[in-house]
User: Fold Inositol-pentakisphosphate 2-kinase from Cyclocybe aegerita.
Amino acid sequence: MADILHTSPNDWKYVSEGGATIVFSYKGPPNPDFDGTVLRLRKSIVPANGAKRVAHASFAQEEPDDPTIEYQAKCMEKLIPPEHLPRLETVFLNKEWLRKLSDLKDALRPEGRRAKDEIDLNRKKGVLATDLVGGNWVAVEIKPKWAFLPSPTHLSTETKSVKTQTCRFCMHSHLRSQEGEKVVTDYCPLDLFSGQKSRVLNAINSLWNAWLASEATVNNLKIFSRGKFLRPSEAHAMLADNTSKETQLDTIRDTFAAALVRYLLQTPVLSILSRLQRNLDVLDIEGLSKLWKFTESSAPLYRTTFASFFEQTSDSPSSAPPSTPLGVSSLFLNAPEPSIPDWIDFLDKYLSSDRPELDHNNPSPKYLHYYLLAYLLSATFKDCSIIIRMDMLEPGTEPTADIRPESVTVIDLDPKSMDKLRGWEKLDNDIVRTYSSAQKKVCVDEWQAPR
Ligand SMILES: [Zn+2]
Assistant:
């Protein structure tokens, strides 16, 4: 295992951070263990004034590897060809090294983040990964989001006409605009996933426009050049050295789009993600929720606990026994957080050629657990990002070189947890309810099974 404690915290450059992790790239003296790598560290909440930091009790003895590593090695590699996954490995850390790093780099972090969280100094392990953005290339990070329109089978009469016409992302954008978010994009993931050049170009242009309008703060497109995160005013940094620095922004946009579309049309990554999302979310959250309620209400203990409800006659149809929110364990129904062995078990079933044919039109309570895990896994693919590593842009020259498979990598493949489900069900409801009164956009799903 590479020994990171022998590198100086000075050799690590702050790159970026998300809600849970912060990323540094290696810029120290040549070192085969660390050249071309990034270090990903977990963050912890900044304690309120006066509160004491509490060490993770569960890590007192042996801290497990970051779950991302095990999840990738044991699960994701069964679904996504390894050439499209980053190299990930565990490195050991200590508090002294982390504190030095934190002291050196904290001032470089966005102010809003610094108020909220910091590097978790109690962690003993971090993740070393391929540096996908830091080399002599343009790295484009796209968060594609939902790739499909749901099957109408389990949708309610109120939601069916909405959800089968407008994709989830476009409806969510509408909700965000209603809630007052300033930059709302007209990007439609179904364009990106369509496999058709003109539609993929549309998607790229929409992503670019939102990138411009938001000053690169939009979530769905990030651009890096030679390791530097670019804002629109720095778009020239995408150009090859021999290119005129007078190049207009529109020319850069067109060159960017022409280069990117080649990668997106040639890589199998988008169709793999689309197929996985769709095949793992066959019931929609509405169907999953119905199956959950039905399974719970079939439990013998539930029937006896709420016997009075079941004995009621149709005179009082308004009263129904209470049900437990989706994904929350109760006395009647157990929905434990999936462990890695649970995921492996699920994937063995999912990928087995002789698995019993599940009747998705009439899902059985017997398979509730299967459908729950399938939905969570689908959510991982709805929320992941892809990074495309392209040559520096040269306006006016037509790129012809073959695209190497490993130029497109899938990242942010974290397992999702059961306790997200109830929130997702509510969000789905809010999104569709708000959209019902909107001007309906028509999103075309090229890969939809004929109805
Ligand atoms: Zn759409």
Notes: The first helix runs from residue 67 to 74.
